[in-house]
Write a structure and sequence with these properties.
This protein starts with 10 loop residues before the first helix and ends with a strand. A hairpin with a 2-residue loop joins strand 8 and strand 9. An eight-stranded antiparallel beta barrel has the order 2-3-4-5-6-8-9-10. The chain is α+β, with helices and mostly antiparallel strands and 209 residues long.
Amino acid sequence: MIKQQPFRASKAQIAPRVASRRVVVCRAAAPALTDVERKALSVFEATGKTSKEETLRLLVRAGLGRLVDQETVEGAILHMERLAEQDKSGPTPSIAGRWRLVFGTATKFRPFQYIPVKEDFVLNAEAKTVALESSLGPFDFYIRGVMNQWKPDSGELDFQFTKVDIHLLGEKKWEVSPKTKPKTYTFFYVADDLALARSSAGGVALLIK
């Protein structure tokens, strides 16, 4: 396996992605913030660059090149979550496809919030399946499940993982069927190549295409 290296984008590459993005922001009710989240939001707001456009530029830099510190990224995502409450846009379009999970706060250990392995969240709307595909050294992990419900009006995706396939050097070696609980990702910002969501298991996430 080839170790993934962070991609560092130039300002010229970043600006067009923000300017040309087709944007749909979902109306989502932000939950009460934890103490850690409140601090992260304060750190982001202290930058003084809190317009929607400036926030998106920061998140693009984080998604493409991991160029922003973790606490500021978390604060920027939470800021977008708050902005979503004020938005009057229509239903969320389909989120089907392959999304790279770049950043998540399910773990509170800051060094691991930029996800240190290649990890893709894959949704097949026609087959109503979901998968989390990741690689670590010679191992590939395919965590598969079902899409229980997609609610475009609220941006909520209900799903449950049911099976794990483990491959070694490209060949399937093991299959596990763990006991899991249903989960929900609430997408409060969706664009052609960037999405933000909150997990029912805790924390927020940044995904890119």
